[in-house]
Amino acid sequence: MILMEDIVREGHPALRTRAEEVVFPLTEEDRKLAHDLLEYLVNSQDPEMAEKYSLRGGIGLAANQVNKLKRMFALHVEDAKGEQLSFVAINPKIVSHSVEQTYITSGEGCLSVDRAVPGYVPRHARVTVKFMTVDGEEKKLRLSGLPAIAFQHELDHLNGVMFYDRINEKDPFSDIPNSSPFE
Ligand SMILES: O=CN(O)C[C@@H](CC1CCCC1)C(=O)N1NCCC[C@H]1C(=O)Nc1ccccn1
Ligand code: NI
C-alpha cells in the first residue's frame, strides 16, 4: 500500500516531468500502480486507516506523485449529487471544455506540497474527458464541480504542472473572469 513516505514532495523532479503514455496491454506493474493509487485514496478517506497509517486525505492521486512517470491517476470523489466517482484514468485527455471557469474559494492544496499556498486556481467549470480504464475500455465523461476540478489538478500533474503555477502572482485572489466559485 502507498504511504505518505512514498509521495514525493516539491523539489522532486518527478513533479516537473511529463509522464509517458501507458502502453496497452498493461503490465502487471501498471495494474498494481493503478490499484495502489486508488487504494491510497480510499484508505486516506477512511478515518481508521488514515489515523493508523498517518495518511493525509486525498480525492485524487497522480502517478508522478509516487515517482512513476506514467500517464495515469486515480480519483475518489463525491459529486454534487453525492454520487461517488471512483476510477483510475489512463492516458486521460480533456476533449472539450466550457468557456466558463471555476475555482475552489478556499484555494487548492496538494499531497506533494507541505505548505499552504493561498489563491484562486482557475479551472474549466465543465470538461468532457476521455481516458482508458484498466480493462482497456475507452471512457468518455462530462464532469463539473469538484470532479472537474480534481480531474484538471491530476492531469496537470501528468504534465509537470503544479496548482500554484496557475495562481495570479500579482493578486492571488483577483477576480477570475467568467467564473462561478466552488464553495
Ligand atoms: O494530486 C492530488 N493531490 O495532491 C491531492 C489533492 C487533490 C485535490 C486538490 C484540489 C482538487 C484535487 C487533495 O485531495 N487534497 N489536497 C491537499 C489537501 C487535502 C486534499 C483535498 O483537497 N481534499 C478535498 C478537497 C475538496 C473537498 C474534499 N476534499
Ligand atoms: Ni496534487
Based on the model shown, name its key terms.
five-stranded antiparallel sheet; 20% helix; 183 residues; three-stranded mixed sheet; alpha+beta; binds nickel (II) ion
Describe, in plain words, how this protein is organized in 3D.
The protein has 183 residues and is an alpha+beta fold. Helix content is 20%, strand content 26%. It has three helices and eight strands; from the N terminus they run H-H-E-E-E-E-E-E-E-H-E. A five-stranded antiparallel β-sheet has the order 1-2-3-6-7. It has a three-stranded mixed β-sheet with strand order 5-4-8, covered by helices on one side. The longest helix is centred in the N-terminal third of the chain and has 17 residues, at 28-44. It starts with 27 loop residues before the first helix and ends with a strand. Residues 57-62, 65, 108-112, 146, 149-150, 153-154, 157 line the site of the ligand O=CN(O)C[C@@H](CC1CCCC1)C(=O)N1NCCC[C@H]1C(=O)Nc1ccccn1. Ligand N9Y binds at residues 57-62, 65, 108-112, 146, 149-150, 153-154, 157.
Can you give me a brief rundown of this structure?
This protein has three helices and eight strands, in the order H-H-E-E-E-E-E-E-E-H-E. The chain is α+β, with helices and mostly antiparallel strands and 183 residues long.
Would you identify the regions where 5 or more consecutive residues have pLDDT less than 50? none
How far is it from the N-terminal to the C-terminal residue, by CA?
32 Å
Percent of residues in beta strands?
25-35%
Mean pLDDT: 98
In what order do the strands lie side by side in the largest sheet? 1-2-3-6-7
Structural class: alpha+beta
Tell me about the largest β-sheet: 5 strands, antiparallel
Give the oligomer, counting copies of the same chain as homo and different chains as hetero: single chain
**SSE order, as H and E?**
HHEEEEEEEHE
SS field, number of helical segments: 3
Large-scale geometry: globular
